[in-house]
Design a protein that fits this description.
- By secondary structure, the protein is an alpha+beta fold.
- Helices cover 26% and strands 38% of the residues.
- A six-stranded antiparallel beta sheet has the order 1-2-4-5-6-3.
- The longest helix has 16 residues, at 57-72.
- The chain is globular and about 50 Å long.
- It starts with a helix and ends in a 10-residue tail after the last strand.
- Belongs to the thioesterase PaaI family.
- It comes from Nitratireductor indicus C115.
- Keywords: Hydrolase.
- InterPro entries: Acyl-CoA_thioesterase_PaaI (IPR052723), HotDog_dom_sf (IPR029069), PaaD (IPR011973), PAAI_dom (IPR003736), Thioestr_dom (IPR006683).
Amino acid sequence: MQLSPQETAERCAQAMWARDDASQWLGCKLVAIGPGTATMSMTVEKHHTNGHDICHGGFIFTLADSAFAFACNSYNQIVVAQQNSITFVAPGKSGDRLTAEAREVARFGRSGIYDVRVCDQDGKLIAEFRGNSRVIQGKHFEENA
């Protein structure tokens, strides 16, 4: 039986989430998944804050990078980051619920481009992230199993 694109994305996400210790340790939650899309969220806690008492940029980057990873790995191909960049627009504060929404811009050959928008619970833009992906060898699951 052939899986739908949505079912494939969900199976890939299940397989990845089971092994994604970093996102789970950070406190991320996978909110939504689809072909070429993913939404993840996390609440900024005291241990996420830096010396300015705002969310450390590395944690915001990790949230965005995790959403990017789930989006680009939604086609049952193993995909890794080739290059990523982030622009911080506003600080995340302790107690904020940050949400990263990743969407596919383009897939071509073994490469892809994905944009991730990170906002707080009020919809305020916190950061814009762009990720370039590269397909490598392997699959998340056997499709005939």
